[in-house]
Amino acid sequence: MKILTVALDDRSYPIYIGEKLLSDESLLTRHIKSKQVVIVSNEIVAPLYLQTVQQHLSAYEVASVILPDGEQYKTLESLNRIFDSLLAHKFSRNATLIALGGGVIGDMGGFAAACYQRGIAFIQIPTTLLAQVDSSVGGKTGVNHPLGKNMIGAFYQPQAVIIDVEVLATLDDRQFAAGLAEVIKYGLIRDIDFFCWLEDNIDKLLARDKDALIYAIEYSCKTKADVVAEDEHEGGVRATLNLGHTFGHAIETGMGYGRYLHGEAVAIGTSLAADLSMRKGSLTAVDVARIITLFKRSHLPVTSPTGLSSSQFIDLMSVDKKNVDGNIRVILLESIGKATLPIAIDRLSLIQTLEDL
Hints:
Layout: E1 2-6, E2 13-18, H1 25-29, E3 36-42, H2 46-54, E4 61-67, H3 76-88, E5 96-101, H4 103-115, E6 121-126, H5 129-135, E7 140-145, E8 148-155, E9 160-164, H6 173-190, H7 192-206, H8 210-230, H9 245-255, H10 262-279, H11 285-297, H12 310-317, E10 329-330, E11 333-335, E12 338-339, E13 343-344, H13 347-356
Parallel strand pairs: 2-9, 3-4, 3-5, 5-6, 6-9
Antiparallel strand pairs: 1-2, 7-8, 10-13, 11-12
Helix pairs in contact: 3-4, 5-6, 5-8, 6-7, 6-8, 6-10, 7-8, 9-10, 9-12, 10-11, 10-13, 12-13
């Protein structure tokens, strides 16, 4: 088992990465603060893993909330179902919430924990590759709004993140590929050597080779943990983790939550950001081709949806947390392995990129 630490002084917490971790009772219970536990999961994950988690909690008062699966259910209405359960069981502020699922469950479970009685403890048990390498680490929580993705939420750190790579065996190929988009992102923004490793090993990852998976997950989590420790609330370098996300969130919102998986939208968004970086003179055409080729080899889309006009796309991009004073700001690449902080982009350049890709 690998153990990483997100270093945030008295709010620091471990990330456990390995095999058969869901079967380790002590790993889970050491982070539970009281006898009251609520497990939040979804209708896909719960039949697979809920019983495994519950069997470790026979000495606890346990409630479970099973939500519908999908980004379209990441709403205030779903959030209220979690609050309903906590209140119906008369759980106190010493209760612990366990988020057992992908990024949607982790985001909503974390937000519910942040809000219930002004904050209860929670534990992340991510079951998708995307959640394991990205959304479960760093304390971003929230829900979507019809006008914008993740616009309602809070920074709220978990007590621990438990990553069992064996759960990826039940993940479908499309969801698995979506997680690779975030893995590729780390190479693009921080480390060209890791990007090159991905070029050499993407077939092993797609085959779900455990050694390759553990390495990629550990590297991704360590990178994110280091960035979060430096900039917890995204005032600086943490914003680079949003490479491709301004475009991607516009796709998810404009096309309807759930039509594109988050990682698919990020792959398209990162391809657009790479093209825009080339137009601004920082990437070469060869660089852009390498990036797009790696996404394609990962079975991810790279072209802008035909269902969104450029003007609609730009309007959606104007609802983004990185924007300042009405200016659309995006993360670009100075080179493969180095990202910029958010910079304002003119409308003409955005239109050219959106229409050409």
